[in-house]
Amino acid sequence: MAFQVLFYCLIKEIIFLNKMNVVLKRVLILGFLFTTLAVLELTSEESLMNNLPTHDEIVQSIIDRNEQTAVIDQAFEDGYDQEAEYEKLFSYDIRHTFIIEFTQEEWDGLNQDMHDYYEQYGNYKSNNYRRVTVTYIAGDEITEIPEVGIRSKGNDYSRFPPESENGTVSPIHYMMKFNETFEYVEGTDEYKDLKTRDVFDIEQLLFKSNNTNDPGLTNEVFSYEMFRQVGVPIVRASYADVRIVVAGKVVMVELYNIFEQFDEEFIRKSIQEVPTKKVGDLYKGLWSATLDPIYSSQDYGIRDWESNYRPLYGKETNKAIDTYNLLVDFSFGININNLDSRKEFIENYFDIDNFMRAMAVNVLVGNPDDYRGNANNFYYYIDDTGYLTYLPFDYDNSMGAGWPGNPSFINFTLGNDIYEWGWESWMPCGKPLWDNTIVYEEYQILYEDYLMEFIEDGTFSEESYLAIYNKVEELYSDIADLRYTKTNYITTKIQVVTDDVEYYRSQR
């Protein structure tokens, strides 16, 4: 018993270890366990394991500590395997915990920033990053990251202050930025260290709360995994137990989805064949940014939070270069009237195979809030030759979820024909990437073949969905009441799509 008590105390001491002058401190608890076993010559493995601190005890120990975190230091780079940490972060097999610690001043500032923006523009937004300390726990491994930026994230309907006037704290979407420089002056060591810092081989991490009709919190993660499995470039996604701590007090515990972001690092990892090559232009499409011919310069540009300017085509890379000609040229090329000339343009300047894969996945997962439906939620990447790649994102309304509070949209896409998405009355703007490509029989066949391939090879199946859902339920059931509800959706969708494909093949 004395040895057990000593071991527990040693574990607690590691957790409370002073981390001054160290940015990332790796604590391998099991490794320490084996070392301690050797030193103390303990022989009862069962006795020892029964006295290990639980996950909640470890979390609470970190929450309860009272120490100042170090100023930024590049020492964390030594021995820190970015690629390995990236893969670990997005693994479904590991429980991920993020403890996000606010001072009272920073927490109040986060809320006030959003109220101030609302007073000026009528919606709760803010691009002002607040300073927090983050402790990340992956299984038995603890990583501390000081001076991390965090702000609210989401569209107008899903963005509101995290704390209400009566003091209630609600889960909202957050964007975490690891290279935010705060008030540090450019040219100082503090500025340089932060500006060049990557953690997990990424610069930003999105935290999305479950504000959709998804009791299993798996719809979006599964959709992203489908895109990955079929070769469509997509950001990585996983889960996290998120604990918000304000002035030493836990104010929220919630299960979140976490997502990598579309940025230069993503392009280098996922699209460019030569990672060292200069990254091209990445655009985030806003509602109706469908690549109808672009005539107005107001439609493209760089988002400006201070003036509430949000262009239809928001440039995300190469912001210092004020050129948009490749985007404009593509918008006219994809709309060429002559069928032969348009086909030649498509073959030379558009990744049509990737696009048809993406459209096939979208039909199967049934997202109405996409390019074909709501003319929303997509990125365009154009390299220096003018070649465009379509990138899907934001699938929280997939798998029959629809929009919260509006039952008419639940399972909205379930019975829709594979060629008629049914949104023309809502969003009547043209969809040239779809409308002007699917007219060719070659691409119709390609699209239908991908639909059937993803069904027949099991990529879209109840088994594939459950492979993710069962893991998250096992790892996070202590903080989330998850329910599996997708049998009817998946079974029905497979039958509807199969019938449609058979019909169109028979007519050809």
Overview of the structural elements:
By secondary structure, this protein is an alpha+beta fold. It has two domains: 170 residues, no CATH class; 236 residues, Phosphatidylinositol 3-kinase Catalytic Subunit, Chain A, Domain 5 (Orthogonal Bundle), CATH 1.10.1070. It has 16 helices and 13 strands. The strands form two sheets. It has a seven-stranded mixed beta barrel. The chain is globular, with a radius of gyration of 25 Å. The N terminus is likely disordered.
Task: Specify the number of helices.
Answer: 16
Radius of gyration: 25 Å
Give the CATH topology of the largest domain: Phosphatidylinositol 3-kinase Catalytic Subunit, Chain A, Domain 5
Strand order of the largest sheet: 2-3-4-5-6-8-7
Q: Helix and strand succession?
A: HEHHHHEHEEEHEHEEHEEEHHHEEHHHH
In terms of DSSP E residues, the strand content is 15-25%
Q: How many strand segments?
A: 13
Helix content bin: 25-40%
Main sheet overview: 7 strands, mixed, barrel
Helix and strand content put the structural class at: alpha+beta
Uncertain stretches of 5 or more adjacent residues: 1-50, 66-75
Q: What would CATH call the architecture of the largest domain?
A: Orthogonal Bundle
CATH class of the largest domain: Mainly Alpha
Overall average pLDDT: 84
**Envelope shape:** globular
How many domains in all?
2
N→C terminal distance: 78 Å
